[in-house]
Amino acid sequence: MPSETENSKAKRLKELLNIYQLSQLIKKPTRTTESTKTLLDLIICKTDDPKTATTDVVELGISDHNLVYTCRKVGICKQKPKIIETRQYHKLNNAKFQNDLKQALLHINEHSDPNTALQEWNRIFLLIADINAPIRLRKVRSDRQPWMTDEIKKLSFHRDYLKKKAVMLNSSAFHSSYKKCKNKVTKLISNAKVTTLEPISKTAKIAKKTGFT
């Protein structure tokens, strides 16, 4: 039976996990003897971690402690989409909208204090706008690539400029410059992808070799 000290330490650990929103992933005993089965070896991560795929305990003969492991999903983190507010103008009735604003102005003129009038105008204008051109929320996907550097962006714009000039002027000089710039951009992107993805690829290969996939 665990002693009072052991119980208090376990309770304190649980309190710390709750405070910092962490979870203990191992659920099976990690040390087994003839008379006891105890969970001693832990893996702790943040609660509801979407990157954690598999967690388990492997029995080994080299020790009375079993091997604990967890597998995490590897990949390029995508940026969360932005949520923006837009107004729906395609069904806007201009005549009705203008008439509503005129009626609002009559109400605003009743206020002698300019600050109060301005505050009331802002409130009524937004109310009228919401009725005639309702607000809707839209997700704007982030297309940013982690390997896209400022240098690549700048050179890509220059490449597009050279192509536009080459087509517009039908110039062999611009065509030649465009091809050189295009090849340079392609090479830079290829090298940048290797630099960005190589650590992830190595991690995946190690996991595959060790069987923790």
Order of helices and strands: HEEEEEEEHHEHH
Distance between the amino and carboxyl termini: 37 Å
**What portion of residues belong to β-strands?**
15-25%
Oligomer: single chain
**Largest sheet strand order:** 1-4
Secondary-structure-derived class = alpha+beta
Form type: flat
Write structural notes for this entry:
Helix 2 packs antiparallel against helix 3 and helix 4 runs antiparallel to helix 5. The chain has five helices and eight strands. The strands form four sheets. A two-stranded antiparallel sheet has the order 1-4. It has a two-stranded antiparallel ribbon with strand order 2-3. A hairpin with a 4-residue loop joins strand 2 and strand 3 (37-38). The chain has helices spanning 4-19, 94-108, 114-132, 150-169, 172-210; strands at residues 22-24, 31-32, 37-38, 44-46, 52-58, 67-72, 82-87, 135-140. It is of the alpha+beta class. InterPro entries: Endo/exonu/phosph_ase_sf.
Helix-strand blueprint:
Blueprint: H1 4-19, E1 22-24, E2 31-32, E3 37-38, E4 44-46, E5 52-58, E6 67-72, E7 82-87, H2 94-108, H3 114-132, E8 135-140, H4 150-169, H5 172-210
Antiparallel strand pairs: 1-4, 2-3, 5-6, 7-8
Helix pairs in contact: 2-3, 4-5
